[in-house]
Each structure stands twice: as structure tokens, then as C-alpha cells.
Design brief:
mainly beta, two-stranded antiparallel sheet
Length: 82
């Protein structure tokens, strides 16, 4: 979910080496859920008009939904809701 006023590109990198990309996520937009194997995940957000690309690391549990939220604020941050 993008809480920032600018578009965001989000990359999800799994410990198995797979990558999921969400491009041009608009303000207030929530994307569809994607499946990953259980394991360590790194989420990176590239925000239009920002120099900082925040990252967050978390462990994805089997059969659990996780929401990656790009938050407002300076510097920009990512919150993980599990």
C-alpha cells in the first residue's frame, strides 16, 4: 500500500532468489497479493522525486498474508503488517 503522494515502485526479493515487482503504485493504491515461499524477504521502495529508497526485511510465514506499506514521513519508511 502506498501512503505517499508520489508513485512508488516496490521490489520484493525472496531468499530463494525470486523477485516480484510492483510498478507505478499510486497514492492510496493497494496491489494484489502475491505468493512467496516461506523465508527471508527484502522489500525495497523506489519513490518518485525521492533520493532515499527505504528497505525492510522480514520473515514470510507459510500461509500468512503480509502487507508492505510505504509510509509518509521524512525520511520515507516501510512498515510491514503481518
Amino acid at each position: 500500500m502506498n501512503q505517499r503522494s508520489d508513485k512508488v515502485n516496490v521490489q520484493i526479493q525472496t531468499s530463494a532468489g525470486n523477485t516480484i515487482n510492483f510498478n507505478d503504485v499510486e497514492y492510496g493504491q493497494t496491489t494484489s497479493y502475491q505468493s512467496t515461499a516461506a523465508g527471508n524477504i527484502v522489500a525495497t521502495a523506489v519513490i518518485k522525486n525521492e533520493l532515499i529508497s527505504p528497505t525492510a526485511k522480514f520473515y514470510a510465514e507459510k500461509d500468512t498474508r503480509t502487507t508492505v506499506i510505504i509510509q509518509t514521513g521524512i525520511p520515507p519508511t516501510i512498515r510491514i503488517d503481518q
